[in-house]
Design brief:
The structure is a single chain. The chain has 334 residues and is an alpha/beta fold. The chain is 50% helix and 17% strand. It is built from eleven helices and twelve strands. The strands form two sheets. It has a six-stranded parallel beta sheet, sandwiched between helices. Strands 7-6-8-9-10-12 form a six-stranded mixed beta sheet, with helices on both faces. Strand 6, helix 6 and strand 7 form a beta-alpha-beta unit. Helix 2 runs parallel beside helix 10 and helix 7 packs across helix 8.
Amino acid sequence: MKRIHVLTCAGLLCALALVLVLGGCGSKEATDSTQTATREIAVVPKGTSHIFWQAVHAGAVTAGKEFGAKILWQGPQTETMKEQQASIVRDFLVRGVDGIVLAPQDKDALVDVVKEVAIDGIPLAIFDSGIETDEYVSFVATDNYKGGVEAARLMAQLMNNKGTCIIVKVDPGSASTIAREQGFEETLAKEFPEIQILGSQYGYSDREKSRAAAEDLLSRFPDVDAIYGPNESSTAGALLALQARQLDGKKIFVGFDSSEELVKALRDGGINGLILQNPFNMGYQGVKAIIDHLEGKEVPKQIDTGVYVITPDTMNTPENQKLLTPDLSILSEE
């Protein structure tokens, strides 16, 4: 009886040990499951230096916190590094993220990498600027053509529907700014035939290059009445050129997007109007589109985030202040 008792105890001890081991394995599996439950959403902007992209970042992080996703934010420093942007997307493919939100620098150059994302079965949302493929879940952006239309109408109002203007263009491969330029040019031609566009020049998404383009245009057409910048860098570059010639406030000037310098110039009279987007909402809606898709919800193929016309008379309303100086405090919490 004694021997049987010893064997029984030994058996009980073995069984207990087995339960503990299996329990430990189960605990690890549960931990791993909990860890993998947090989705990783990569957000790849055109650039990272402008406040526009920082506002996109804030919107993406806000959506990530709301929907329980980890936001992986990475983009080129400037908006002309197309190969680097493609490389960033491919790195996220290797990592195996759950979804990607991309603002393509070029409507053609990024097509191949978008197709690679589709082949890998990773859902992709395009934001800010379009691309020459439909292999994405949703396109989240401003109606950029409408933005150009609104810029033309504001300028015509300021010019009493007649006069001359010049355009500091952005980049021949950027779909968003091409649409803003076309909307502006076509609206002037159709609705305001007494306003003549004397010339245009590309600044290639760079302030200094935009400044040089503006200076060249101002040298060629010193008596021009007005100037248009279709994005932040072109507007900022044109402002620098006007300031250097002490012409700020003396030429009618309509720009696009916002920064500390542009807001100050709008307040001081150096800029007559800014056409604004809602970059915070772009980041938020881009991430939300991916989350909704992953959860099996229907996602609109296109999401319009709005166009806003801001002048010195309207810039101080609470709604417009949020657009001009977006709240980026959430980024300090990361």
